[in-house]
Amino acid sequence: MRAALPLLAALVVLGACGPAQEAETTAGTGPSRRARGDTPPVPPDSTRVTAFSVDPENLNVDKIAMRDGGIRPDGNRDLVFRATVEGPADALYIVTTSDKGEPHYGFRADTISGHEELPSELGSVVDVGRLTVWIAVVEDGKFINTEGGALGNLSPGPHQLKLYVPNTGNLRPGSHLRLYARAPNGGLAKGPVIPY
Questions:
Q1: What is the rounded distance in angstroms from the CA atom of residue 187 to the CA atom of residue 93?
Q2: Which residue has the higher pLDDT, 131 or 60?
Q3: CA distance 117 to 139
Q4: Alpha-carbon distances, residue 148 vs 22, 117, 136, 139 (angstroms)
Q5: What is the 3-state secondary structure (H, E, C) of 116-142?
Q6: What pLDDT sits at residue 5?
Q7: Bridge partner list, 54
Q8: Is 47 helix (H, G, I), strand (E, B) or coil?
Q9: Is 64:78 a contact under the CB 8 Å cutoff?
Q10: Is-above-0.85 flag for pTM?
Q11: C-alpha to C-alpha distance for 117 and 82, rounded to whole angstroms
Q12: Is the pLDDT at 110 greater than 90, yes or no?
C-alpha cells in the first residue's frame, strides 16, 4: 500500500495538469521552418536585391542608437551600407557569409523585432529580432522604419536605400556580407555577396 501512494500521487498530478498542448505557430514566428519541417517559400519574381555595397560614410557617422528603433546618436559610429531593393518586401537581413555566399552564424542585423525569428535559411541557430542589431532604413533622405525598428512594407518597384546598423565591433575586415529581402510570402531574395 505504501509503495502505491507515490504512484497514485503522480497520477493525480498528471490528471490535474491535462494533456500537453502544442503551441500554434504562424510563418515567421515560433519554431523555425526547419524545425517544423516546412520548406521555404520561393520569393516572387518581383522581390529582388539588385545592389548592395559599403557606403563611404561607413564608420564615419553616428545616426542611430543600439536599441531597435533608436533614431538618435548614441556616441558610437555606425556601419553604413547602400542597397537597391525591388519590392514588395517586408523585412531586410544582413548576414555574414562565406565568400561563395553561404550564410553562417556570425554578424546579424535585421528589420524584425521582438520574438520574431530569423529565417532558418540564414544559417543561424534560433535567433529572434530582439537578440540581433537592427537596420535603420533611409529612403529619399527619411528614416522609413516603423516604431520599434521594423521595416513595414516596401511597395512594389525599385527602392534606393541607405542602411545604418549599430556597430557592435564583431564585423571584421575581410568578412563577406549579403543582404536579403523578405517577400510578403516569406520567401527570401538574395543580394550580391560583398567583402567588408
A1: 12
A2: 60
A3: 25
A4: 29, 15, 10, 18
A5: CECCHHHCCCCCEHHHCEECEEEECCE
A6: 47
A7: 81
A8: coil
A9: yes
A10: no
A11: 25
A12: yes
State percent of the chain over pLDDT 90. 60
Rounded distance between C-alpha atoms, residue 132 and residue 110, angstroms: 7
Residue 66 one-letter amino acid: M
pLDDT at 43: 59
pLDDT band, very low/low/confident/very high, at 119 (cuts 50, 70, 90): confident
Cell of 181: 529581402
Which residue, 76, 195, 49, is CA-closest to 133? 76
Question: What mean pLDDT is predicted for residues 48-64?
Answer: 98
Q: Which residues contact 156 (CB under 8 A, 6 or more apart)?
A: 46, 86, 87, 88
User: What is the grid cell recorded at 174?
Assistant: 575581410
**Strand segments (E) across the chain:** 48-54, 79-89, 91-97, 103-110, 133-134, 136-139, 142-143, 154-165, 176-182, 188-195
Strand order in the sheet with 133-134: 133-134, 103-110, 91-97, 176-182, 188-195
Where are the chain's structural domains?
44-195
What is the mean predicted confidence (pLDDT) over 14-34?
40
Grid coordinates in use for 184?
Answer: 510578403
Choice among 23-27, 72-76, 126-130 with the minimum mean pLDDT: 23-27
Other C-beta atoms lying within 10 Å of the C-beta of residue 4: 8
pLDDT at residue 113, rounded to an integer: 81
171 and 140 Cβ atoms separated by less than 8 Å: no
